[in-house]
Amino acid sequence: MKAWAHDLDADKKSGIRFLADPDCSFTKALDLDFDATPVLGNHRSKRYALVIEDGKVKEAHVEPDNTGMSVSVVDKVLG
């Protein structure tokens, strides 16, 4: 994520923030996790992007499967 943030020049001016969720607690609270135990050993986050304004989720871009990249890509989110 650090490399993505650097490449996109994410800072306070752009309004883009990249946040890690190492223990999946935020993701689980949003019910956006899935059980990948057989393959990866634990629960993992679905691929998603949130648009948040004034502390409220305005848009949620959640991939319909756990591997694709059709709705959470930058052109769909920031379009």
Describe this structure in words.
With 79 residues, the protein is an alpha+beta fold. It is 25% helix and 24% strand. It has 4 helices and 4 strands. Strand 3 and strand 4 form a beta hairpin. The protein is globular and about 40 Å long.
Helix content range: 25-40%
- Summarize model confidence as the mean pLDDT: 86
CATH topology: Glutaredoxin
| Inertia-based shape | globular
Q: Strand share of the residues?
A: 15-25%
Give me the secondary-structure category.
alpha+beta
How many distinct beta strands?
4
**CATH homologous superfamily descriptor:** Glutaredoxin
What is the fold's blueprint, element by element?
Elements: H1 2-8, H2 25-29, E1 33-35, H3 37-40, E2 43-45, E3 48-53, E4 56-62, H4 74-77
Antiparallel strand pairs: 1-2, 3-4
Which terms summarize this structure?
single chain; 79 residues; alpha+beta; Glutaredoxin; two-stranded antiparallel sheet; two-stranded antiparallel ribbon; 4 helices; 4 strands; 24% strand
